Amino acid sequence: MEGTVFAPALEGIKHVKSEKEVMLTKPFLDACKHILPVIEKFGAAMALVKSDIGGNITRLENKYLSNPTKYTNLYSMVQEEVEAKTAKGSSSCTNGLLWLTRAMDFLVELFRNLLEHGDWAMSQACSDSYSETLKKYHGWLVSEFKFFGGNEAFSR
């Protein structure tokens, strides 16, 4: 995938773990940031996804920048919040990391669907990806809402 919009993200993924297999905060966030221009290629239809991912990256990055030595690895942020009993809060870094990884799972499934089902409309690829990854975490209102259906921006 050299020379594609995916190349920077794929290169960045190689550096997210330390020699001891610990997830490093800055390389992880940098790799996630490389996905934003890819999402942007999909246009306004994916603006919500891009905004959500960008917001969670910013939340984690701000925490990291507050003390880069202390937060070298992602586990240190989560551990601190668990010990402080703030991990379950909607504005916690733990929650941001959880939703960031869920969004990345959605994107991986979307890209897989687009690759494996070239005959599918974008709306079908998105709906299937959503059902497979995110639907179980959303309430009934979001689940019942036609998340991507009928959106002309997704037509091929």
TrEMBL record:
Entry GO CC: cytosol; membrane
GO molecular function: ceramide 1-phosphate binding; ceramide 1-phosphate transfer activity
Residues annotated as domain Glycolipid transfer protein: 24-144
Keywords noted in UniProt: Transport
Keyword Heme: no
Gene3D superfamilies: Glycolipid transfer protein
Name used for this protein in its record: Glycolipid transfer protein domain-containing protein
Biological source species: Anisodus tanguticus
